[in-house]
Design brief:
Elements (H helix, E strand, L loop, with lengths): L3 H13 L3 H10 L7 H10 L3 H9 L6 H12 L2 H9 L3 H18 L1 H11 L12 H4 L22
Helix pairs in contact: 1-3, 3-4, 4-5, 5-6, 5-7, 6-7, 6-8, 7-8
Length: 158
């Protein structure tokens, strides 16, 4: 496992050289276990490589959902895409991130955001009910936590 200093040094060299293809190849071919993803996201975002930073944050083995949503909203203004991404997360994580970014999402993608809130709270009127990703994968075990109540998400509207 690479130390965060090693990751930062290597990625800063690639970014200073403006060698996008080598940088992209390194991030695609190198297993995440061989570099520090948090440092990589920070260095890439600082250098303006937002797409690469978001791609790392989105990787299943990294799951830096907060970073992915923040980058999507701040740098790409991809509001509907951020709502779709939140809809793929487990309810507790989606709720937490919605409380943090909900005002921006309501302002810029109100219809999609309301649909997400309805889904999280189990209020969907069309389509399938919200299904936790682990349940969809055939996970068994403990019962799923109750969905958040509407009043838990009211700060999104205020």
């Amino acid at each position: 496992l690479a130390e965060s200093e090693h990751t930062a040094l290597l990625l800063k060299c690639y970014t200073k050289l403006k060698d996008f293809s080598t940088l992209e190849e390194f991030l695609e071919k190198t297993p995440v276990s061989q570099y520090d993803p948090a440092t990589a996201i920070d260095v890439l975002e600082t250098a303006g490589y937002y797409g690469l930073a978001a791609a790392i944050a989105q990787k299943p083995e990294v799951q830096k959902h907060e970073d992915y949503i923040r980058i999507s909203l701040e740098h790409f203004k991809s509001y509907a895409k951020a709502v779709d991404y939140l809809g793929e997360l487990p309810r507790p994580e989606a709720s937490r991130l919605l409380l943090e970014h909900g005002r921006v999402l309501m302002k810029n993608a109100p219809r999609e955001t309301v649909g997400l809130i309805r889904g999280i709270c189990g209020l969907k009127t069309t389509g399938e009910p919200w299904e936790e990703p682990s349940a969809a994968a055939g996970g068994a075990g403990a019962s799923a936590p109750a969905p958040p109540c509407v009043h838990d998400l009211l700060p999104v509207f205020v």
